[in-house]
Every structure is written in C-alpha cells, then in structure tokens.
C-alpha cells in the first residue's frame, strides 16, 4: 500500500501509533537479552503475533488497553530477566 492510499492520522492517532511502535521496539530489545535461543524465538513469535492480530484496531480505548497489556507484559519479562540474573540493565525506566 502506498503512502498516498493511507488515510492521514489525526494527532491522537499519530501519538498512539508512536507509543505502540516504541513498545514494540522495547519488547524486542528486551527479548534480545533472553539467553536461550529457543525461548527467544518463541517470545519473538508471540510478540509479532500479538501485534499483528491487533494491527487493524482503530478504537482508541481498545488501543490504550492493549498498550497497557503490552507494558505490563514487558515489565513482567524484564522482572523475570532481572531475577534470573541475565538482564544487563540495573534499573528499568518506567513512565
């Protein structure tokens, strides 16, 4: 699909989209720290599937709820990595 065919996003939609993209990048950065290759691949597949299955979601409230779910999942993953001693970050930045 070309850029000309896409509908222009209003400011709220644009900002939400940026939050989703940031969460996606943060999740994959964190997944890279998982030491086991099989677990890492499983987590990558899970994350991609979740994002793809909700890619067409347009409802602002639903997107915000999905962002909340994603952030919570990311926090749980970071906590698990931290407790297992493989996480490189000492302190996680939280909003």
UniProtKB/TrEMBL annotation:
GO CC terms, sorted: mitochondrion
Major subcellular site: mitochondrion
Chain ranges of the Complex 1 LYR protein domain: 18-75
Keyword ATP-binding: no
Keywords attached to this entry: Mitochondrion, Transit peptide
Subcellular location: Mitochondrion
InterPro entries: Complex1_LYR_dom (IPR008011), Complex1_LYR_LYRM2 (IPR045293)
Keyword Mitochondrion: yes
Listed PANTHER family: LYR MOTIF-CONTAINING PROTEIN 2
Primary role: Involved in efficient integration of the N-module into mitochondrial respiratory chain complex I.
Family, similarity comment: Belongs to the complex I LYR family.
Protein name: LYR motif-containing protein 2
């Amino acid at each position: 699909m070309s850029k000309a065919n896409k509908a222009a996003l209003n400011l709220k939609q644009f900002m939400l989209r940026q939050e989703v993209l940031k969460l996606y990048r943060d999740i994959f950065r964190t997944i890279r720290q998982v030491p086991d290759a099989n677990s890492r691949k499983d987590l990558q597949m899970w994350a991609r599937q979740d994002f793809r299955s909700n890619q067409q979601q347009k409802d602002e409230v639903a997107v915000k709820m999905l962002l909340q779910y994603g952030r919570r999942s990311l926090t749980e993953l970071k906590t698990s990595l931290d407790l297992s001693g493989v996480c490189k970050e000492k302190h996680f930045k939280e909003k």
